[in-house]
Amino acid sequence: MSDPNAQPPVDPAKGGSVPPAGDGATPPPAAPQQPPAGAYPPPPAGGYAPPPPAAGSYPPPPAGAPQYQQPYAAAQPMSPSDEKLWSTLIHIGGIFFGFIPPLIGYLVLKDRGPFIKAHTLTALNFQLTMLIALVVGSILTIVVVGLFIIIAVYVVVIVFSIIAAIKANKGELYSYPLTIQFIKA
């Protein structure tokens, strides 16, 4: 199909002329609108520059400069029900994950109240003591006596952690028996 708006070709041998290049429908490319790199930007509207900073004041920091960060606020104290909940969870977490929940609880929650601090500290000391007993039992498995020590340690951890969780849920302080005080308050 042919374009209905297209003009028929003209043969220059018969007296016609060839239109010059550039007379087509495409306009020439526009001049760039942005100044080249390194050139000064145009002045602001009105032709006035911003006023210099007042004497004694500092200029604003350059873009991308680190900003001053306000110090963090102190941790808010927990409500008694939250302290009981977290203390209970830390004691129960020690059954499944050893000393990790009491350690995290002590590092994160110790400043949130005296009740939670006491429970996380006692749970951490107890779990560290039981970890040492497990290492000793593992070494003694060579002599076969260690297997009984490992089983006894797991039973002690389960029983005493449940007792501690129940006491914590009632809002009472609990001190584990057979505990070495590695971390003191």
Automatic annotation (TrEMBL):
It is a multi-pass membrane protein. Residues 1-66 are annotated as: Disordered. Keywords: Membrane, Transmembrane, Transmembrane helix. This is DUF4870 domain-containing protein. The chain crosses the membrane at residues 88-109, 121-140, 146-166. It holds the Pfam family MamF_MmsF. Its main location: membrane. The keyword Transmembrane applies. Residues 1-11, 26-64 have a biased composition (Pro residues). It is found in: Membrane. The keyword Oxidoreductase does not apply.
